[in-house]
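I am writing to request your help with a piece of structural work I have in hand. I set the record out below, with my sincere thanks for your time.
___
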Amino acid sequence: MIHFSAKSHVHRLVTVLSFVGEYPAHSLYLLGKERVMKELVHRLTTAQTFRNDETGEEHTCRLLTITGKGREKSIRFYKAGLAILEWVHPDAYGYYMRSFWNHRFPGDKAHRERHHRVAEAAVLCMKAGLEVRPYVLPQLQNQGLYQVVPENPVFYLAKDIKRVGEAEMNKTMFTRMAGAVFSPGGCYAVYNTRASAMKWSGMGEFKALHSLMEIGRMNAGVPEVDSAILFGESGDVALKTLFASEESKRLEFRFDGIYRHIYFIAMNEPGVRQLKLLMLPDWKRNMQEALFDEESLAFDKGIFEYDAFVDGVYVFSHLDSDLARLIRFKEAVTGGDKRYEVVCYPHQLGFLREYLDDRVGYKTIGMELLEAALGKEGW
């Protein structure tokens, strides 16, 4: 018998599938210990008896099925297991059936790839403490200026953003956006490039950004959206994305031509911790004040991107993993005759040295020290 309780692995997996439809087997490590999750999924592909520990109700069924091979292997509900969605939330079953063609999935690679990208982004947001369940979140609207979005950090799926009127659907149909995050720090478009360099769809992304700005204005009082979160499997993906951007001859196909800030978040535990920091109110100012004395801060008034001027050195912080800002910093220091230094986490050092070479100095700081300085030690 498998116990279905709020903190169980099976509850977490069923909850995620209830709004993403299918999940990549390759990324089970994001949901828990990989070996444990693989064993659980294998077990759930055969008939099991489940017990709802809250109600005492029992249900016997095969819960999951697996399709595809290699990195395309996908985990979905078996039809007989859909009844368990009622145990997750009263509206979970209805949302799932409306969103996934009454449990009839297209067999093409493009749909599966998109579902996987959205699923990974949603799980990372969930691990960072954001509310991601669409049937729990208030529905977005375009009828007036209302405070619809909750004050706590939340993640809205792209498919639910597209449903806010036909005009918005047309504007975003060509984008690769996985969703949007609303937090006290602002609104962020969310992308997931997985293991590849991010490739933008040009004007489609501008249209998506315009649509998101309208939704943010009408549902959260957000005056402007100029930032995005980019998930990727590792720092190597960030490096490939930066070099690919430099090769582009047209600014509209470069991410820094679309968003002023692109925060790269690796799909691992340090990445989740970095995402948590981005969700804090006034996180950027508080981070700068934790690192530097107030009299040395640049306050965004310099002629190029840097955070502080300390003992004759222009210091740039990459603790926020802002790739767009890093591009502007590199352009400014290339051929410059001043002294420069980059502050980063230890796991960022190799990536930064490969991108910036030896034209700057480097100083590392442990993430736990920054978390402690911001009052978030051990979270």
